[in-house]
Here is the input.
Amino acid sequence: MMCVICKNGETKPGKATVILERGEMTLVIKGVPAEVCSNRGEA
Here is the structure.
């Protein structure tokens, strides 16, 4: 699938890190399944 952000790379199944912030709290979740761009690494 074509990357919707850069329009150049192909996306492939991979893993991403999600960071959620609320007030003073930050939650980091690693290893979230995602489509990752082969060109820029965007998830």
